[in-house]
Amino acid sequence: MAVLMPVILLLTFLGVQYSAYYIARSVALAAAQEATTAARAYDGPACEVAEERGRAFVARFEWLVEPKVETTCTGTDVTTVVTGVAISVIPGLRWEIRQVAHGPKERFTTEGAP
Fold first, then answer.
1. Between the CA of residue 43 and those of 24, 76, 83, what are the distances in Å?
2. Quick one: what percent of the chain has pLDDT higher than 70?
3. What is the chain's Cα-based Rg?
4. What pLDDT digit, counting tens, does each position of 45-88 carry?
5. 3-state class of 2 per DSSP?
6. Nearest partner of 90 among 23, 13, 7, judged by Cα
7. 3-state secondary structure of 52
8. Cα separation of 82 and 70, whole Å?
9. CB 61 within 8 A of CB 27
């Protein structure tokens, strides 16, 4: 039992660490989608306001450390990139996360127009 216990504890901590990584990825993707959805709306807020919505979403959860939200708006498209690091249960383990959400801006067009 004394030989197996460290292995069992290591596997348990690795399982918890993987779960934290998975949840942090989900939070980053949801924040990217939140910011992109806000910026895509017809007559929606500016990119900076949408970026702030993404930051506010990430701030509600503590699974993502050192989060960075960047939203880029062009004439027809919106792209949001959320990066950060998953919280660490195992000291020294650092899993970087990068999630992207992209979509076209809502706009009026005429029939047959691109």
1. 31, 12, 27
2. 98
3. 19
4. 788 888 999 999 999 998 999 999 999 998 889 999 999 999 99
5. coil
6. 13
7. helix
8. 7
9. yes
